[in-house]
Specification:
The chain has a five-stranded mixed β-barrel. It is α+β, with helices and mostly antiparallel strands. The two termini are 28 Å apart. A hairpin with a 5-residue loop joins strand 4 and strand 5.
Length: 195
């Protein structure tokens, strides 16, 4: 059984709402967890460190409910948890797959939800796709070269990604200036060519 089909048959996952950020498949994202419900969620994880990371529609909401969250998120593995002096946690998550939240099964002390995978509509290798991929890569290289805050290593990583969908996800997750709403739109676009 593949990792992807295992995820689609698993039970309800703990939901970690995040502000002003979007986690993409294959991306590693450090997150600061400070809300009491989110700290409880991370502290409750046992052997299975699988969670669901979902962006909030409005970052100012302190106690998000299901309606405050986007309906598409990313299943993730929590690799490392560091306790901070102020009682918050610093965690490292790795995105696994796009999913749609289908039903909430728990609301307290933190939310849990059932999910269904959002399969990627792969782009056939074609001159058009290859041209789009080259253009996106060239633009990204220009942005990284002109930015004092982005590491030149990002260009090397991007040049070594062959899959168009994965490349777009990597670039979107690497641009801190891209608004959350735009990143979320990219996450929700399953058709690679459109993405």
């Amino acid at each position: 059984m593949t990792e992807q089909s295992q995820n689609s048959t698993r039970g309800a996952l703990p939901v970690l709402p995040v502000r002003d950020t979007v986690l993409f498949p294959h991306a590693v994202l450090p997150l600061t967890v400070g809300r009491e419900s989110s700290v409880d969620l991370i502290n409750s994880l046992g052997e299975d460190k699988t969670i669901l990371v979902v962006a909030q529609r409005d970052a100012r909401v302190d106690a998000p409910q299901p309606t405050d969250l986007y309906s598409i998120g990313c299943v993730a593995i929590v690799h490392k948890v560091v306790k901070m002096p102020n009682q918050s946690l610093f965690i490292f998550t790795e995105g696994l797959e796009r999913v749609r939240l289908s039903e909430f099964t728990q609301f307290h002390p933190y939310m849990r939800a059932l999910v269904t995978p959002v399969p990627e509509v792969a782009a056939e290798k074609s001159p058009e796709i290859e041209a789009l991929q080259r253009n996106v890569l060239n633009l990204f290289q220009q942005i990284v070269s002109g930015s004092p805050t982005l590491s030149d290593e990002l260009q090397t990583v991007a040049m070594n990604i062959d899959e168009p969908g994965r490349l777009v996800d990597f670039i979107a997750s690497s641009l801190p200036s891209l608004p959350t709403r735009d990143k979320q739109e990219i996450l929700e676009t399953s058709d690679v060519q459109v993405r």
